[in-house]
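pipeline: protein-struct stage 2 | run 1193 | Probable transposase IS891/IS1136/IS1341 domain-containing protein
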Amino acid sequence: MQITVQAKILPTKEQFQLINSTTKEYIRLINQIVSDYITAEKDLKYTSKNVNAELPSAVKNQAIQDAKSVFHKYQKTKKQSILKKPVAIWNNQNYCIKDQLLSFPVLIDDKSKRIEVPIILTDYPKRLLTNKLGSLRISQKSGKYIAQIAIQVPESESTGNQAMGIDLGLKIPAVAVTQDGKTKFFGNGRQNKFIKRKHRSARRKLGKLKKLKAIKKRHDKEQRWMKDQDHKISRQIVDFLRKKIMFQPFALNNFLVYARRQEQAVKTRKTSITGHSIV
């Protein structure tokens, strides 16, 4: 399975400016290529040699691949997506991490040169980084740059003989039933509905008053609160597993993947959920 490790990087002032210009140029190039594709109504087979951008060749190639994905989405929806958030991506052959330093190429004086940026990694991410690495994504959050590294982690098959069923819903976010009949309820559906009504009412009032800046300032507060609740419910279910079923570590890892998928399912369903899954 593929997971993502996030870590804060600590660039110097010069490195900060280089990363800032690289991320902005990366997004500008993607939008430009997508616009060219839409005008021509086909893939123009761009390469790093025939696109004009102040980026290393490897980063140009990655931008071209991302532009193709955006263009394919446009072909299905007929709606052009304009990317705005500055971000840049390097494939696993163009960066490395060694001694708490993240090394990747940027364009300096029209030449591709590597810069080494300090990265904050705790013991757990360090252990994960010993697996096969995927792409590196650098984006800005709250004025600070975050490195997101894709990692391919091998999945272990569970050999346990115990099972547990989980039912997801709105009134009761999650209900777990073990093989021996033990039942546990997780979350508070009434509280979730109250919070949703509260934020919906606040947005409606601000909209009537034409306070668009205030609406923007809330910055998806409701969604962030719901995401936090989903994580807490997942943790409660895992603790319940450890206490009642005594799962082996590999079985618990498989369940964590399952729980994350169920969190996403809860967000995308607007009616009561009747699907059952067995761990």
